[in-house]
Amino acid sequence: MNILVASGPNLNLLGLREPSIYGTATLEQIHQRLHEEADVLGCTVTCFQSNHEGALIDFLQENRTSAAGALLNPGGLTHSSVSLHDTVKSMPFPVIEVHLSNIYAREEWRRHSVISPATRAQVVGFGWVSYLTALRGLVALLRNEEPVSS
Amino acid sequence: MNILVASGPNLNLLGLREPSIYGTATLEQIHQRLHEEADVLGCTVTCFQSNHEGALIDFLQENRTSAAGALLNPGGLTHSSVSLHDTVKSMPFPVIEVHLSNIYAREEWRRHSVISPATRAQVVGFGWVSYLTALRGLVALLRNEEPVSS
Amino acid sequence: MNILVASGPNLNLLGLREPSIYGTATLEQIHQRLHEEADVLGCTVTCFQSNHEGALIDFLQENRTSAAGALLNPGGLTHSSVSLHDTVKSMPFPVIEVHLSNIYAREEWRRHSVISPATRAQVVGFGWVSYLTALRGLVALLRNEEPVSS
Amino acid sequence: MNILVASGPNLNLLGLREPSIYGTATLEQIHQRLHEEADVLGCTVTCFQSNHEGALIDFLQENRTSAAGALLNPGGLTHSSVSLHDTVKSMPFPVIEVHLSNIYAREEWRRHSVISPATRAQVVGFGWVSYLTALRGLVALLRNEEPVSS
Amino acid sequence: MNILVASGPNLNLLGLREPSIYGTATLEQIHQRLHEEADVLGCTVTCFQSNHEGALIDFLQENRTSAAGALLNPGGLTHSSVSLHDTVKSMPFPVIEVHLSNIYAREEWRRHSVISPATRAQVVGFGWVSYLTALRGLVALLRNEEPVSS
Amino acid sequence: MNILVASGPNLNLLGLREPSIYGTATLEQIHQRLHEEADVLGCTVTCFQSNHEGALIDFLQENRTSAAGALLNPGGLTHSSVSLHDTVKSMPFPVIEVHLSNIYAREEWRRHSVISPATRAQVVGFGWVSYLTALRGLVALLRNEEPVSS
Amino acid sequence: MNILVASGPNLNLLGLREPSIYGTATLEQIHQRLHEEADVLGCTVTCFQSNHEGALIDFLQENRTSAAGALLNPGGLTHSSVSLHDTVKSMPFPVIEVHLSNIYAREEWRRHSVISPATRAQVVGFGWVSYLTALRGLVALLRNEEPVSS
Amino acid sequence: MNILVASGPNLNLLGLREPSIYGTATLEQIHQRLHEEADVLGCTVTCFQSNHEGALIDFLQENRTSAAGALLNPGGLTHSSVSLHDTVKSMPFPVIEVHLSNIYAREEWRRHSVISPATRAQVVGFGWVSYLTALRGLVALLRNEEPVSS
Amino acid sequence: MNILVASGPNLNLLGLREPSIYGTATLEQIHQRLHEEADVLGCTVTCFQSNHEGALIDFLQENRTSAAGALLNPGGLTHSSVSLHDTVKSMPFPVIEVHLSNIYAREEWRRHSVISPATRAQVVGFGWVSYLTALRGLVALLRNEEPVSS
Amino acid sequence: MNILVASGPNLNLLGLREPSIYGTATLEQIHQRLHEEADVLGCTVTCFQSNHEGALIDFLQENRTSAAGALLNPGGLTHSSVSLHDTVKSMPFPVIEVHLSNIYAREEWRRHSVISPATRAQVVGFGWVSYLTALRGLVALLRNEEPVSS
Amino acid sequence: MNILVASGPNLNLLGLREPSIYGTATLEQIHQRLHEEADVLGCTVTCFQSNHEGALIDFLQENRTSAAGALLNPGGLTHSSVSLHDTVKSMPFPVIEVHLSNIYAREEWRRHSVISPATRAQVVGFGWVSYLTALRGLVALLRNEEPVSS
Amino acid sequence: MNILVASGPNLNLLGLREPSIYGTATLEQIHQRLHEEADVLGCTVTCFQSNHEGALIDFLQENRTSAAGALLNPGGLTHSSVSLHDTVKSMPFPVIEVHLSNIYAREEWRRHSVISPATRAQVVGFGWVSYLTALRGLVALLRNEEPVSS
Fold first, then answer.
1. Taking CA atoms, which of C84, F111, G85, K2 is between 20 and 30 Å from C145?
2. What order do you get walking across the sheet with C95-99 strand by strand?
3. How confident is the model at residue C20 (pLDDT cuts 50, 70, 90)?
4. G99 annotated active-site
5. Contact with chain J for residue L17, Cβ under 8 A
6. Of all helices (H) and strands (E), which one includes residue D45?
7. Is the complex ipTM higher than 0.90?
């Protein structure tokens, strides 16, 4: 079971950019931690970052039939990319939207995500832990866990 | 380390109400599962549900000094309760907003949460797994986990 | 066949409060008249008033399986209570929204009901006769009357 | 005592048009049923339908001094006809707005009626029963019924 | 030089309808007075009223090549009739918009005229004198009066 | 196979009205050309124009069971006629919305069509060629053409 | 009977400023023509122009008890001066709002006058003839003319 | 002469919650100071706080006939409680709205009070002194003080 | 300790203008009463009124270093004067906004004050008593009163 | 005469993505059919698809001087790409906007195209036939067809 | 060649008012620096500041025929003064709008300038250097500099 | 000291595209002139243009540590690219936004820049001179020039 992890514009600057908002962890460190967690959960992750909307769309489309799910942090594309929304909607697997900062406690225009309606779920505001938490949640979803074992 | 789990109006109907949207698990089953997960994580949970905004505020205020964090599913209060927003803001610990359904894929007026700006983070759209995932994320936050061990 | 009649905040002041808008009949008089009309129609009514949103939700939830329908005058909760909307939506029977005054001829902000989309029908602006008319309409609906007998 | 029953554009298609929304009763059947109910209530009804806004205005104006009240289902004119609003406002008798479907549970733009502020009351969402219920409510209003006989 | 005087829906009720707003003069009296004033000014007027938007459009189109100008009181069509706007715009002569009441001191939605951008000028709020004043202004315009004779 | 061609208010002025926007072809010339094209395509057209919203609704309703499709240029009714929207929606055949000018490059309020959601498709901005192109497109639709012959 | 004629910012540039919109007549020429017309009508006019909002308010206040009416062209103050609105409202005589250009056919933000609700009537779009027409209309109003002599 | 002092949700946390905004005085200290000031002014105060909207409404209704006026700090209910608005409107005595912080210098959504239109006056932004100042102002109002003694 | 009392446009008409809204006290009487109250409170007041925005700004700037605080009733400038907002913000002392009428119970556009965010506090709706109450509140603020003496 | 055919993000998934909305034809099949139709019409087409906004802009710019016209289906870029708007505007030939689905009958935010004002015409809602119809319309435009041969 | 430099309300407080936003340079120092720079550029400057909108309008009007261009920092008048907009529009020379702070990074309502559409260009956010930069840019414009000498 | 000069989509068409708005200078000519001016100012410039948002982000990120400042003309990305906003915000040096045309005098939707809040300053409307002026202003800023030498 392979999970895609796609991160959008400027996320390659993590650790350098506004650390009071985004934390000091770099994207490579987060990717490495996700690989370790995937081992624990019994799955694999394929990680990708680009500043190009088109490249993110290409990445998702190319893995459309082989992946079981995806984490997507659209970065600045969150607020305007209908194209990415359409790509997410055409994926046959659930996509989880991930944000490091609590976008609902920031500028007004950061509160509206055009991606959210196309995703299955969102994890927002835990810093780098958002990726980790989203991965755990997605795997639980894909394994169809029930609160009580029958 | 004790974590509060507060659920608002109509969540006592879980399992009965629109199961295609909210799932078939009852709130009791979810509470029980959270107790089990808390054991695994080495903490405890105190669960509470009410249809009364005032009772939810009282519950949070009364546990203000003894709890380490809280999960809050405000139900229908999500969209208008400035009072609950103010209560969350006056808590000395992080509060995680939880929603079972993807509120961003439903009616327009369900997309705006007045609670979100006061919370630390949100987990939305995983069904009952939202509670479970939020609990794991909150504990990771409180334990200050880093992606790489130093 | 039992019909619930629920009235929200400030409706206990009927007869005292702004009689030029709301009329001089008291809520007790209206309740009594509805009991008499119910006799004529061959059903019963259970009447309830509260200034507490939570108590109205509790009342509807508690009668969820025993009632055949409900009249609901949400009073000031009409314009903001998503919680009450959700409660109405989770009832297995039709709910009729009732208003004494023509809310569409008053202040702009009184024109928008968040409850209406969840109800089956509305009767608005007949003064106390709104309750009476709504009861007759609800019973006709429940008995599935057709314009021409086959 | 004569009551006008005016129906606007496309209501002549009742029974044919979107029966899941508007029901299977035809307008003639509804008119016939209203005549029968009028007999029971001790009044008469004059029924009229047109697809022309101007014709509906002419109809109301021509019966301005002879009628005691009116039911008006403005159809698609509900949402924009200030002219019909003005006509209703200049009638010396109460006009009841009638809708078959719950317009508040449909498209956003169907929720706003420019006619409502000029009418005395509204009956909305009972299907063909809306006409019947409105007629009963209007007669009760005109007869000045009180909840308790003095 | 012939001037058209067209009045829209409900203006045939002038003198009967809300006299505190619209005055006690009837439309016939106003038409008669305009004929007299036209005599004084050395022109003629052709007066027309209809409750039908289409009839008003037909009237203007039919007189398109013979008239020198027009007064138009669109009544309730003021606020929504793009068709009438387009008709006015396609006239080869100036059209003056006329309102009896000060529409800017009434309900919010009466303040916006979709007709105004297509007209040459407006005279608003003088009661029946609006027609008279507009006729004088239109004739002055058509005669190209200058403030100082050269 | 008969196709309706309905044109709304002011389209009878084509060729006379603002030729820089609407071109110099008259409506009769366009109608004649559509008859010729219909011959080529193996179908017939029934053409109609009116300045009356009600007459356009009557025309569509009267041909409801005999036509196979319709072209509709609603003229100024485009922007406010919910009645025409409802008529289009109740037709059992596809209706194509046609505009001569590019309404999206003109005044802000011309950009919003209340008719579009009820139609199957739109052809906008080709001048008189919009009618011709729409006819060809509609016939291709009705004949269920596929891009590759199987 | 004395009539005030007050003109706001930039109207002293009339004749110089954008003549295609405002015409070539200067404000002095207009004032002179108004004096002549006042002679004809049997009244007097006091003319005033200032680029200072405060000076216009002072002018109206100082003539509050001696004037019988006023023409007011607020210029750029039309769209934001609540102070001038309040001054107009506190005058014991009718004030007529005057604009040379058709403000409803220009930039969107020129369409909204905060002064209009406080005035009795408006004359808009006749060029310099707006002043002349407004003076005639105001005098007719003040003399309480009826369409038919009794 | 008895004055009610009602405080809404979270005001029981005064002194603990965001002291940089709300100050360090507790609600008990403020209540005590108001009792002392009431002594000076020759009246009494009845103080009440609740986190429940319904309880605040009950409190005002129960003292409806015995009190001479009220101070109301609605807390988070300020921005959405139409029910509380209606309660205030149905009181036979003046109600003064009180806020500790300057709500107009905070988040956008704190600027709009649905309570204000129903109250007689507001005192906002003086910290705890708002209560004291409002009490003095209310008593001056109730005693009908004039600026100059006659 | 000197307190400035600045009143904006039209406040010189107090007593004459709409007494049902603004009361019968004149501004001079209010100023005199404030001098008397200042004596009681052990401070002085400097009173000023102007219809000119610029003069009000000049007045505040000129007293910038000598005054201890200010009351400001901006009149009609309340709703649009960013300049006055900026002046208030640049004062080194607290400014209290004062309104005689309850601006929140009047026209929609009177509800928004651009001045409020720059002021320290507001006193609104007490009639002339607003000035008196504001003076008392400002002095209490400046003297740093605490609810309980330590 | 060469016509460009440019398709934006996700249109390479045609046939796979939401076939109930977009149909089962693949983009290659459509391109092939357009080549065949071009043969019939006596012109050629150059087809291009990309998920990259920049690549679409580059494509149009590179063919700026050699093409006679273009069809453009901007996909998700329709709703936000001002850059593409500007590119279209700077082309010396007419560009026809093409959409497969009726974007006016879908989500609210799909109704607004920022591209439309820069294009010459639009063909919307015919499924794959939109491309075919647009090509025919564009060629008719370019050949300057008149409805009647002179 | 003379350049006007006009500064609006509160700019006389530069150096005193919120130095973290506006810097420590006084307006006199800036004026002196502009005189020096004008010498370098071979032109002259006439500097003016006022807190009165009317005085700024008078200043521009009086220099209308003698100046070659103007810098205008409208201060708080930026956001509402249509009068100043109109004055700028009626100047025969280019006017450059100048702001010291980046108004687009401050309060929402500071982002909208009603002056900008009437000006030729804007220089915003360089602190006092905005004036200097604007002067250099304006002179380059007036001298019609080309990027390459022919 | 090196300054970046980045230009967005379609700016490579300068000189070809709408010269009445954008002028006749080509981007190469402007770049050459900036190199010459940089020589005069004692710095260097690195110029870059792309139609790809991602490429512009890559360019800024790659020069993040070596440049001293940047000029950015985002072209059509101005109005929607939150990604570019975020990139600008994460640069350690000041970025100046540059536009050739006065975007505030064009279409409504061109007036809003999502980039501006992240930049230090803006130079807008000088045609190609905007680049030159911005370079001079940026260098003055970086050199911390004061209006008076100490």
1. C84
2. C44-49, C2-7, C69-73, C95-99, C121-124, D121-124, D95-99, D69-73, D2-7, D44-49
3. confident
4. yes
5. yes
6. strand D44-49
7. yes
